[in-house]
Structures are given as C-alpha cells and as structure tokens.
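Incident review: delayed structure delivery

Summary: a single-chain prediction request sat in the queue longer than the usual turnaround. Root cause was a stuck worker, restarted by the on-call engineer. No data loss occurred. The affected request and its eventual output are reproduced below so the record is complete for anyone auditing the incident later.

Affected input:
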Amino acid sequence: MYTFELIQNGRCPSVQGWWLVVKPGEWGTVDLLHARITQSAFLGGGHQLPADESKMSASQKYAYANPVKVGAEWVQRVSSQIMDGETVYVNASGGWCLKGKQDKVLATESRSELSWPDTKDDLWQGEIITIKQWGDGIHWYLLSNKSRIFDGKKNSLEAAKEVARQYVAEENIRVHKDFTHRKEGD
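Output delivered after worker restart:
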C-alpha cells in the first residue's frame, strides 16, 4: 500500500501537489522508484542538459545526461536520507524533498498501486506558477502548484515570466519577493 499526501508549501501557499510518502525501511518502494526514474531517463523523460551547458566539460555533460548516472544519484541521495531516519516525499516527476514544519497536509490518499492522484491527462490544468525572489537575492525562481520541475534560476523577473508563459496564461502567474531560505528546524 502506498500513501500519498497533498502538501501545501508553507512558505509559498500557492504551491501544492501530491507527494508519495516514503518512510524509513520502505526499500521496495525506493527500488521501484529508482527503476522508474532510470527507465524514464533512458526513454528521454525530461533529463536534459541545463541551459548553460557551454560551461560544462564533455565528461560533465555525459554524467548529467547518462540515465544510469541519473538513477544512481537519485537512489544514493534518497537512500542516504532514509538511512538517517528521514521520511522522503517524492512527486510524480521523481523529484523529492523532506517536508518542512510549515508545510500543510491538505489530503491523504492510500493506493494499492504506485500511481499518483491527479495525474490524468488534465495534470497541468489549473496550474499556477509562482515566481519568487530570495529576500536579498538578485535571481528569480519558478515554482508550480502541480510539482512541475523548472531548470535553474533566472536573472530577471521578465526572463522568469517568459518561462512561465510557456506553460500557463498570464493570469496564472504569481510574483512574490522576500522568499526566505528554510532554516534548520523549519
């Protein structure tokens, strides 16, 4: 049985999504996710080189795009957290995190199969993209309420908005300044 939680980000309430809860000792789930992520990378599942690849050496490009390397790094990082007794949260894209104290669980769903709630064809319907700037920072970051993964930081608000417009209409873009880092214990 797999447990999924709909989590609202405590620091950015417009960002929410379904996350698979992987508790310490659930190695079968980790193995299954590892296999899926590696397979997705082999099939071209979105693991692309960053935009600034011109600064990367040939070996760095190979390591980044190599599906086995992608899967191995994923399982190594997740396993490390689980061995430390942490519960890991995994989204439908394979991204993972630890839940912060300010994050809120809006709903819980148990399933006998490993399939995320709300991942039908309309997965991206109603998506809201929030653009954040750290309190004293100069860069802008994109966050999705549907757990979409965005590549890197943007140097201007307009550049971040250009990326957001590729996915959603203008009315579904939110801009927030003074986004703060989570501190230990948050």
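Verification: Residues 45-49 have pLDDT under 50 and may be disordered.
Action items: add queue-age alerting; document worker restart procedure.
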